[in-house]
Amino acid sequence: MLINDPIPSFKSPPLNEVVLNVQYDAIEKFNIATYGLLWEKFKTDFPNVEQQMPLEPQFERIGGRHAPGDFLRFRIGQLVTPLPRAWFISENNQEIIQIQPDRFIMNWRRMNGDAYPRYDEHMRDGFLRNLELLDNFYQENGLGKIQPNQCEISYINHIDVSGTHENLSKIFTGWSNQYDLSDIADIEHIDLNINHIIKDNAGEFLGRLNIKIMPAFKETDDSPIFLMELTVRGRPLGNDLKGVINFMDLGREKIVRAFTKITSSEMHDIWERER
Question: Are 19 and 107 in contact (CB under 8 A)?
Fold first, then answer.
């Protein structure tokens, strides 16, 4: 499943956000008071709190269909008022811990041009440390333990373009500049959504790599960019936290290799590719 060649690296990648997400069997005894107790555990590093709508369960399956009961399991005991999703936010607003009864998410987002702290050097250890803290909390309070059923890792890139959204071929190797209908009509924008199946070493379905490319505009000056989101989602590589982090390692490698392969050498020079 892993490739022997070193994982590509860029000094100045266009990365704007990284999301590490584990979904697990819902903690049935989780209630509104649980959030207050959890914040006591996380507030030193994540002192700010927001409330968001809960996320529905997601499962990658062949054909993309959900199995009966996937959504029902999440709603048992919550038929009247679903519990919210809590955001615990770092002082500098760069990192977020998201928790709900069946999910733990850690985000890094670029603020004020700050550099990405890197997966190996920061994100991996931070995610695992806080996930273990959550799992220990559940067990110490008699709520159960984390039983992971899906994992997800996403890299979201903001790629500058020169002038208009027509220049996708300059960035993306899968788009040919031979596509030209200028004598008929002008291109307004281009959206691409590509799914790839990922298999394990035994050739069994593991999950999917999804690549989305869509036009967007910077909030600062309204200049055009392409938003490129790469996500790997699927079953954990084991039924414990080690299986979760092993999936994240695999997903991160597939995302970085895919990003490098589908973007042009011209852009690699701009992003200062190291290897």
Answer: yes
Q: Order of strands, edge to edge, in the sheet holding 103-109?
A: 48-52, 85-89, 95-100, 103-109, 15-24, 148-160, 224-234, 205-217, 192-199
Q: Identify the bridge partners of residue 48 per DSSP, sorted by sequence position.
A: 89
Provide φ and ψ at 262, rounded to 5°.
Answer: -95, -5
User: pLDDT tens across 47-102, in order?
Assistant: 999 999 999 999 999 864 544 445 444 454 444 578 999 999 999 999 999 999 99
Tokens of 72: 């029902």
Separation of alpha carbons 138 and 262, rounded Å: 42
The fraction of the chain above a pLDDT of 90, given in percent, is 71
CB-count burial class (<10 Å; 0-12, 13-18, 19+) for 218: exposed
3-state secondary structure of 35: helix
